[in-house]
Amino acid sequence: MVKIFTEVIVAPDADMAARRIIAEKKNLRLLLTGGMPDPRAPGQVIRSVSGGYLAQTRDSGSVNAQELRVVTRRAPSQAEIDDLMLAFKICKHVKSNAIVYVKDGASVGIGAGQMNRLDSARIAARKAEDVAAAEGLGAPRTRGCVVASDAFFPFADGLLAAAEAGATAVIQPGGSIRDQEVIDAADAAGLAMVFTGMRHFRH
After folding, report:
1. CB-hemisphere CA count at 13 Å for 129?
2. For the CA atoms of 167, 144, 122, 58, what is the dihedral angle to 10 degrees?
3. Tally of domains within the chain
4. What's the first-to-final CA gap in the chain, in angstroms?
5. Would the pTM of this model clear 0.70, i.e. be above it?
6. How far apart are CA 185 and CA 172, in angstroms?
7. Residues 93, 18: one domain?
8. Are strands 169-172 and 99-103 parallel, antiparallel or unpaired?
9. Are residues 155 and 90 in the same domain?
10. Angle at Cα 180 formed by Cα 73 and Cα 82, nearest 5°?
11. What are the tens digits of pLDDT across the range 75-103?
12. Are 74 and 111 members of one domain?
């Protein structure tokens, strides 16, 4: 880890040999947690707001592949399901409105913190395009990727932007009054789409 650009290493513990190696690296900090908390444990998240605080239940939810509900004519392949599960897990930790593109077990574009899902989908695609240009790739890595949304698509536009970026499969909670419109758009674009029934949120 000290051979690559790293500013902070967070670990449950480190032996003295590891501590010495890390200490020799300039501007690298080691934080020892003494054990990692269970991310599924209940709790609250507190945010300050004008005149007080907002308390909300921690997002400790998770889904497994057996809980996914295929809502399109095409079901995702096993490789797509693997990437969809990773994308949805990443979405949980990205600021809403979160859109995450994943391909071959790695995130290839992330859009976050926008007023709508369409802008997040476009920003994530643009970041992938910028990386492709910087690395001299023929096409962005979003070609043939999957996409996750932390909440439902209220309109088909965000989903279509993801399809334009190259996504072939979609994972989202579902639950919009326009779900059928979004499903129809996915079918028309040849996308596979699954619903989780669970929304993530990070504000």
Report:
1. 10
2. 70
3. 2
4. 31
5. yes
6. 14
7. no
8. unpaired
9. yes
10. 50
11. 999 999 999 999 999 998 898 899 999 99
12. yes
